[in-house]
Predict the 3D structure of the following.
Amino acid sequence: MAEDRIYADESDLESLREPFRFDATVAGVFPDMLKRSIPGYLASIEAIGSLAARFVRSGTRCYDLGCSLGAATTAMRQAIKAKEIPDCRILAIDNARAMVERCREILAADRSVSVDTETGPAIEVILGDIRETVIRNASMAVLNYTLQFIEPADRDRLIRRVRDGLNDGGVLVLSEKVVDPDPAMERLLVDLHHEHKRRNRYSALEIARKRAALENVLVPETVAAHRRRLEAAGFSHVGVWLRYFNFVSIVAIR
Ligand code: GEK
């Protein structure tokens, strides 16, 4: 796995002014970046597999919205195949070309599904904006650390469209970086997160640069705001199943 050294070069002052972008450089180191940066990331992927095994129904669709390199798609694919749920389709969507291209390569090379015994779901990797994706006949949708990159003004509509596209009993997994309404708690959680990154071999400089690059690109909200939006959209059950510092994963059932 290629190591994320994007913000490690002390002489590279240009990158200090550049907002974060999902380009080929990021796609090349992405699995390492998420594993070292997002506390609970691997747990979120594991749970997506467990939830797929419980919630995905035959003859329905699963949506991986902001799929990056398809980690959630792979987890759903493996669970659907293991449970032999017939006639499913996974749609993996991302608007970053570099991510989509690499995602197609990774899914094609996934050795857990061999071509001759392929009984798993059909998969489509789509280059597109999730704000425009048609969502229908879905038993599962995943927004794994993606909503935080969507303009706040567009979030209500997107969540409502996800809810409308899910069948009754369908599930949404929403994972997000969050902010705490209590400033002291927020400072503590951010500090714990940065310490976690230092333990994962990011230098103080890399942490500071990444933070600056994500300013206004990743816009976190409170857990309460997410809960309100999901309930207002019409989800019947909403619950936090994972929290690790300022990273949260929520399950919402239609
Ligand atoms: C994982 N879910 O590994 N339309 C489509 N894609 C978008 C949009 C948009 N409007 N905005 C951002 N993205 C993945 C990780 S990463 C999280 C998701 C992170 C895409 C963007 O291109 C990127 O690939 C992804 O959302 C967010 O489980 O980097 O912290």
In short: The chain has one domain: 1-254.
